Amino acid sequence: MSAFKRKRGGQAPGNKKAKKAKFVADTSEAPKENEQEKTHEITVPAPVSQGKWKNKERVLIFSSRGINYRTRHMMQDLRTMMPHSKSDTKMDRKDKLFVVNEVCEIKNCNKCIFFEAKKKQDLYMWIANSPHGPSAKFLVQNIHTLAELKMTGNCLKGSRPLLSFDPKFDSEPHFAVLKELFTQTFSTPRYHPKSQPFVDHVFTFTINDDRIWFRNYQIMEEDAALVEIGPRFVLNLIKVFQGSFGGPTLFENPNFTSPNMHRRQIRLAAAARVREKQMVKELQKLKRAGTKEDVTIDVTADVFLTPADETPVLIQTEAPEPKVVKKSKHKAFKRQRMARK
Amino acid sequence: MIIDSSTMESEDEESLLGQESEDENSELSDSELQEAFAKGWLKPGMNVLVDQAKKHVNNVEGLKQCLAGFCKDLPWAERLDMTNLPAEDVIYKAEGKKPAVKSGDVNPDDDFQREMLFYRQAQATVLDALPLLSKHGIPTKRPDDYFAEMAKSDQQMQKIRKKLISKQLILEKSEKAKKLREQRKFGKKVQVEVIQKRHKEKRDMMTAVKKFQKGMTDKLDFLDGDQKKPKEPSQAQNKVAKDNKKGPNAKRKYKDQRFGFGGKKKGKKWNTKESHNDVSGFRAKVANAKGAKGAKKGAKGGKQNKRPGKSVRKQTKSRS
Q1: Under an 8 A CB cutoff, do B79 and A187 touch?
Q2: Tell me, what's the pLDDT at A339?
Q3: Mean pLDDT of the residues in chain A
């Protein structure tokens, strides 16, 4: 394979810097090789365009222990998208946060994206300007990674992104700070050795619903047809600190409810619903038991009764006389009676 | 500290009692509260402590100072950042409608609307940035022969392509099915029409024939017309019928002819008045392979009864 490895280059003066470009046909070496090989060799410019790499921004991307697979994938995606990033081993949960600053110093980084997982379900993201601050803490929601099939775009690994911001970022001071922080962190320095000299994707940061929505699009055509590449996530700002991973709080998001609180509220609401149902049931039971007696008595039964005239009550004190039985003992037959008439 | 009497966690008898007492308590003074506590009306769990409305920090000055402190003054070519409103909605523009929602109040639960907003914002950025990029000499398109590692592997892209294709296939299939359904509906109509037409032709023909019979006309041209016209459709119909309903195959036909198809089976083989004495079907050559005079065995060709006579058959049966 190495024989056919295509190398970039030829004409660029920056070639000398490219370490791996050993196969490049140098003008002095070329005549020694036979003609056939020379014709097959294709020369491609080195990945780094000519120019001096001045902006030595480096971003440390790492996490605490206990992150789930989705977060891990997203972290990996961010690393592929940002050639100026560095990685480190996961931090122990017991370590204090300001240890991150030391890690940054060791790794020679001046920006840091730190993922902090809690309860294996909540993910927090710190973005910090390492030695002197400021730093911001976000809750990360709705993570989608590069591996998802609905994201159909693709871009060069290590190409520099355009950064697109919502105009709302200029409306409030804390958003302005965040914007500067994002620009410095996510923009790849020009002429970075690992970067590609082309701009073929856009990071967008939009504020909607008090959250910052991150999207990554590929630039397809000059007429701005875009295709999403990924990853995508939503950042919910919690706090902005003056220092890096600490220091006085500059801003606190009033609309933020912690995920614990949110879950608790949901639980309480569900419990209240159940309790209400039970109460209603009990009430119905009581009602059913109570109303049975009332049905037998009709309240309106004597509405139309009118009082009648009082009749004197006669009380017989003596026994009634026995009735005289007048019965002729010799009753004639019917035939005789008829004849008599 | 404020005692909130609105919500209670547990609905025990205790707390129900407590609620009542609390309702009273809420307007009582401290000393009365103390008394109540001494009497044991107030119990832990009955009262909910509510913090003062939390004060959220928003240190504008500090934020501004901080921004000024860590802001780097880099040229645009280093940062490549853009701040802009979302681009105009092409769909709405094409339909001549005004955008239903401003960018400020996009419903975050409406996936399509929201994603469209992000897309348009990115679009606006790209449109604005492309001239700037070209001005700074930053290419946006790599040459065709430039191969480098991509963010997504070829495998992944293959998977994506496969999924897209399968989706398209499903769409096409459903569309086809829809069309077929419609066609079937239409086809029925056509069939009915054809039948009606045929009936009408027949009726006309019959009336024409009757007229001729009665001597009302001398012309026989209706026959020509009849021959001419229905010939083509009849041929076509025959073809259609052939296509639609294939008759039995040759083998079946032969068998039908030989053994009969349908009809009464019983008594078919019985002799009738005519047949009982008829031996015309008997061929001595064939039967029992006893050829007529002069004819040699085996020289008669294919037609020969292979079945031996009855007595022979009996013998063989008993032998075995």
Answers
A1: yes
A2: 81
A3: 84
* B122 interfaces chain A, CB cutoff of 8 Å: yes
Chain B hits for A163, CB-CB cut-off 8 Å, are: 79-82, 125
CA dist list (Å): B94 to B88, B89, B90, B91, B118: 11, 9, 6, 5, 20
Give the CA count within 13 Å in the CB-facing half-sphere of B104: 2
Q: Which residue has the tokens 């090789």?
A: A33
Burial class (CB in 10 A: 0-12, 13-18, 19+), B96: exposed
Residues within 8 A of B (CB atoms), A 237-266 only: 240, 242, 248-254
Buried b (16+ CB within 10 A) or exposed e, B138-162: bebeeeeebeeebbbeeebeeebee
pLDDT in tens, B71-117: 888 999 998 999 988 887 766 666 655 555 555 578 888 899 899 99
Of A8, A151, A167, the CB nearest to B83: A167
**pLDDT tens, position by position, B256-300:** 888 878 877 788 788 888 888 888 878 777 766 555 554 454 444
Is the pTM above the cut of 0.90? no
* DSSP structural state of residue B58: B
Rg (chain B; Cα; Å): 51
* Spatial separation of the C-alpha atoms in residues A138 and A145, rounded to whole Å: 18
| Cβ atoms A240, A178 nearer than 8 A | yes
Which residues of chain A neighbour B71 with C-beta distances below 8 Å?
180
Give contacts of B84 with chain A, Cβ < 8 Å.
164-165, 167
Dihedral of the CA atoms A156, B132, B80, A43 (nearest 10)?
30
**Is the ipTM above a cut-off of 0.85?**
no
Size of interface A-B (CB pairs under 8 A): 187
In B, residues 256-315, which contact A (CB 8 Å cutoff)? none
Burial class of A245 by CB neighbour count within 10 A (0 to 12, 13 to 18, 19+): buried
Kindly determine whether residue B125 and residue A179, on different chains, have CB atoms separated by under 8 Å: no
> How high is the pLDDT of residue B272?
86
Length of chain A: 341
